[in-house]
Design brief:
10 strands, single chain, TIM Barrel, two-stranded antiparallel sheet, 12 helices, globular, about 290 residues, alpha/beta
């Protein structure tokens, strides 16, 4: 499947707003999520689908260098199959499935996805990004992530999850608890975890604070509903200079320990063994990808 790890920021772009497509392609977001679901009214679904099909079939999309994602309508929707046939095109990295609550939905999506790949000449398999946005979906997050090898990641949807339960969307304890639960499910399944959108797009500090928590919990990036949030996400999910320097010291100490046949050792006053080395290598890989060293 297409590489999707470099997604510090993912900007939502309504499929019904083709006038925004070029600006999004030229922007700073690592990934673009073209939407056919919540941001598109029922009466404009067909028009949005046609506009997005035209974009994803055109030459400009391949030159943008971004991770390309399409959020379709739910598997239970009358629009689902037509959405998948329209958006699964060469260059698409992920098909984003909203409101997933059963492994049967994941498998049905895989069947539709494979058929669309064959019909549209897609040779590089498209992955699945599953939205966890209900109590049932959260409880079954691990099973959903393991339902098929096409599943690349889980994405948190706090608004849809909290509002029906009358949980305050911005209650820090609730947000943190759910973030941890989904991150552990994704970690056990071996897929990435992606943070939720932050609807208060004028609240830069709130966005930054939530993104910082997500990064500390091992999420790879955060959804953005407004271009002003993109730079905030890019900054939040960038390794700090101190983290990069520490990772280098860990890598150097590990090389020395391997040469001496030592299994555990100390770096910066902390005992280090294999899990710490794994994390240090991941930090250095991210830093290299971002041109930070």
């Amino acid at each position: 499947m297409a590489h999707t790890r470099g997604m510090r920021s993912k900007l939502f772009v309504p499929g019904s707003r083709p006038e925004l497509f070029d600006k999004a392609l030229r922007g700073d977001a690592d990934a673009l999520s073209f939407d056919l679901e919540d941001s598109v009214s029922e009466g404009r679904k067909a028009d949005a689908r046609a506009a997005l099909q035209a974009l994803l079939s055109g030459p400009s999309i391949r030159a943008c260098g971004k991770t390309l994602i399409a959020r379709v309508n739910p598997c239970s929707s009358v629009h689902f199959n037509a959405d998948v046939r329209a958006v699964v095109r060469p260059g698409l990295a992920l098909l984003n499935l909203p409101k997933v609550e059963s492994t049967s939905e994941v498998l049905a999506a895989v069947t539709a996805l494979e058929a669309a790949e064959r019909a549209n000449g897609v040779t590089e398999p498209v992955g699945l990004l599953l939205n966890i946005e209900s109590a049932r979906g959260l409880r079954l997050a691990y099973e959903l992530a393991c339902a098929h090898p096409r599943v690349a990641g889980l994405q948190l949807g706090l608004g849809d999850l909290f509002e029906p339960l009358q949980i305050a969307r911005h209650e820090p304890a609730a947000v943190h608890a759910v973030m941890v639960q989904m991150r552990l499910a994704a970690g056990e399944a071996g897929v990435f975890a992606y943070d939720a959108a932050y609807a208060r797009f004028t609240d830069a500090e709130g966005f930054r604070a939530e993104a910082d928590v997500a990064r500390r919990l091992g999420y790879i990036g955060k959804s953005c509903i407004h271009p002003s949030q993109v730079q905030l996400a890019n900054e939040a999910f960038r390794p700090t200079d101190a983290e990069i320097a520490h990772a280098r010291r860990v890598a150097e100490a590990d090389a020395d320990a391997q040469a001496r046949g030592v299994g555990a050792y100390t770096v910066d006053g902390q005992m280090v063994d294999a899990p710490f080395v794994h994390r240090a290598r991941a930090v250095l890989a991210t830093a290299k990808r971002l041109g930070l060293g």
